[in-house]
Amino acid sequence: MFLSKKKKTDVQKNSTSRTGRTKLVFLSLIFALCFGVGLSFHVFEWATQTPVPQLLRYVYEGILLFGYGSLGIVLHELFRSRRTSPARSFWTASISGLLTLFIGAAVSQIGDLFVGDIPLGIPGFDLETGVPLALAYIFKMNVLTLAVSTFVLVLLIKLQDLVLVKRSKSSQRNWYMMLGLMVLASLTVIPNEAGARLTEIQNIALIVVVVFMLMNAFRLSWIVFLSFKEKIATIGLSIVLGIILFFMFSMVGEGAVSGILVPGGYAYLDYYSPPISLFISQSIVFAMLYCTTSFLSLLFHLPTSGEFAQRAGERAAMHSLSQVAGHVFDPEKLYSTITAAPVESGSASSAWLAVADYQTGSLKPVIVATHGIDTEKIESKIDYIALYEDVAQRKEALHLEHAPADHRVSAKPGDGVGSLLVTPLMARDKVLGALFVAKDVVRGFERDDLQTIGIYAAQAAVSMDNAQLFEQQVEKERLARELSIAREVQRRLLPQRTPEMPGLSIAASSVSAHEVGGDYYDFVQLDDHRISIIIGDVSGKGTSAAFYMAEMQGVFQSLSRLSPSPREFLSHANTALAHSLDRNVFISVIYGVLDVEKETFVMARAGHCPAALVDQTGVARYIRTQGMGLGLDRSTLFKTTLEEEDISLNPGDVFALYTDGVVESRSPENEEYGYDRLLNVLSEFRHEDATEIHKAVIRDLDTFLQNREYDDDMTLVIIKWHGIPISESGTLIIPETESTL
Amino acid sequence: MSNFSVSFRTLNHIQVLDLKGELDAHTASDLEAAIHKCQSSGSYHIIVNGADLMYISSAGLGVFMAYIEEIRENGGDLKISNLQPKVFNVFDLLGFPMLFDILDTEEEAVAKFEAA
């Protein structure tokens, strides 16, 4: 059990023992005195052969009551519960019962040796007066009463321990009420002659007592705490005690079997003192009742003992885990708490925790915490890796009752590993680690230990899982924060506004499928009539692409001003990037210079999706000049194969630069958006300005995707050449629109 | 989830890789592993047959770039054949035909190896 079994220190006892002992001696003396007085009383009666006056008889009963009360207190002190198990209570009661039966039987035999002529079973008392006929009967009477009374008192003390397990105020009251009523009922028979029948009132009093007996007989809370084995043992002992009580009852009570062992036993008690006799009868009846309810209850609880053990285990495990839960933020502490609990609660003599090492990625288990044993010893004596892998594979606990017999354990008897329990710590069907729990003795784990540790392990696993999730969450949030910063940085690398040139309208946008992407577009105003334009796409996605994109931006912003010619620029860019690009990374680019004075657009394509050009009449084409992607070739091949195209601008010309995210977008039906559809949209909206055309393409793309998320970075730049303004007022020549399409 | 696969064939001393499905950033590592396997088994004459390759992304193209240098340094080559028109277009846009032998049929690729 995980409930802390604190050994009661004897310190407290020692301090009170001296006063306690003198009290016991004093009380014992009182009892001896009272007993002596009783004895003298009987001897006096025998000597005079006349019954004493009624008044004197009351005094005698009073003295006896006082004496036996003292005996009760003495016995209570001696037999007081020292946190013994229920089985032990039954055992003590049974043993003292057997002893009493033996004394009773022996004493009755001895008596017959002295007085041979009295028939068996007939007590040696005057039928009229109740005066003892011989000294032998006085002896038998006194010894029997003393023996049976002692037994009954011990019995009651032991039963009290059981009845008052998990006591409440009412249960405690009921118990003392029962005892009190038993005494009261007994007192009512003081005036009775020995062997006389009970009166109505006395019977009623007994009925009340029986009601209380029933109430107390069902106080069986202790059963819950028993293990299966203990229940079996207690069932056996309750049967034994029941049988003993049955014989005892036949000895003291009336009935057909009366006097088998002790002829006339009941009569002796009754002649000694009717109240004591009745009290004894009542106690034995109650004890028999209690044995019966215990027996039946134990029997019925046998099949459910597993659940009870589990419940108790759960509670205990909960208790231990309340500490564990607090260490979610500190894995080290969590590990040591998980490991310490089974040992500190007394379930094991040593424990250690092995966790798959995710850090190194080898998944080889490493010992992260030990308790009651050191790592070196474990590593030298136990092949914990093999054991770990075994349970991790089977996903269930492994119980080595005789650990040294297992080939994976080379511990000797002195090493503290007699039995070993390896429990996988699993959460969400994943093995997080294994808890090794060892006991120094062979077959040291009880069934409830196994269950408790099982439950404990399950919950410890949840705590570990939570700790890992927490860690991951923190990491995730940190990453998310950093990515959002990266996103912001990248957003600022893109132009914040499109350049303005007379006769020109430009619209551009870029979206990333992830936080950051590898698409790029940019403009540099070279002078008052030229701008350079770039669109690029770094191969791959995500963070690495984003870094190269940033590098591309740097190259463009610096190099474009120095050597604006497309071939020059791209060749230099290829050389500049060659050193930093990974071998499997390349950048596809279209670079062009637009001159509003000369009305030309000179561009070159380095592996990029061809630019689309739609003229005023709706003639559309792709400009697909030759050119390799940046980074593919690091020799002169790049420059020699690169072609330039010089396009003279006509008013109404629309250029579309885009990345493959646009044309390769897939509809839910897995169709590609495609080059044709792009040209169609451009053609349809060619009379609008760049912003409207841009909107139209995006709108069409969204319709096509049916609101699916983009799965690639997507960049679109629309450039429209409206023509040179002819009026001073700055209005543009808007080309005539086609009457029909 | 992964709808990409590579299978191996041997034609004389040439290792043929049949690609199937879509080669993108997620599946690129499969092709990497396949080419790496060819290299470690000492075969540097490789034909990548793209008859069943339906799509290739830039990350997929990157795989070819990553290994070609080493393959050629070892006296071998990687040739590409049987590409679907759309896939070939992607190779072509980036200028791959200037770096790789991209052939219509596997036989042509084999012949090219034989000729060398």
Please write out the topology:
The complex is a heterodimer of chains A (about 750) and B (about 120).
Chain A: H1 11-48, H2 54-79, H3 86-114, H4 135-163, H5 169-187, H6 200-217, H7 228-252, H8 265-272, H9 274-301, H10 305-325, H11 331-344, E1 350-356, E2 365-371, H12 375-381, H13 384-394, E3 398-400, E4 419-427, E5 430-439, H14 447-493, E6 504-511, E7 519-525, E8 530-538, H15 542-562, H16 566-578, E9 587-595, E10 600-606, E11 611-614, E12 620-623, H17 637-641, E13 644-648, E14 653-658, H18 660-663, H19 674-684, H20 690-705, E15 714-721
Antiparallel strand pairs in A: 1-2, 1-5, 3-4, 4-5, 6-15, 7-8, 8-9, 9-10, 10-13, 11-12, 11-14, 14-15
Helix pairs in contact in A: 1-2, 2-4, 3-4, 3-7, 4-8, 4-9, 5-6, 5-9, 6-9, 7-9, 8-9, 10-11, 10-14, 11-14, 15-16
Chain B: E1 4-11, E2 14-23, H1 28-40, E3 45-56, H2 58-73, E4 77-81, H3 85-93, E5 101-103, H4 106-115
Helix pairs in contact in B: 1-2
Notes on the structure:
The complex is a heterodimer of chains A (741) and B (116). Chain A has 741 residues and is an alpha+beta fold. Chain A folds into three domains: 292 residues, no CATH class; 154 residues, 2-Layer Sandwich (Beta-Lactamase); 227 residues, Phosphatase 2c, domain 1 (4-Layer Sandwich), CATH 3.60.40. Chain A has a five-stranded antiparallel beta sheet with strand order 2-1-5-4-3, sandwiched between helices. A five-stranded antiparallel beta sheet of chain A has the order 6-15-14-11-12. Chain A is rod-shaped, with a radius of gyration of 50 Å. With 116 residues, chain B is an alpha/beta fold. Chain B has four helices and five strands, in the order ββαβαβαβα. The chains are: A alpha+beta (741), B alpha/beta (116). Chains A and B meet through loops of A and helix 2 of B.
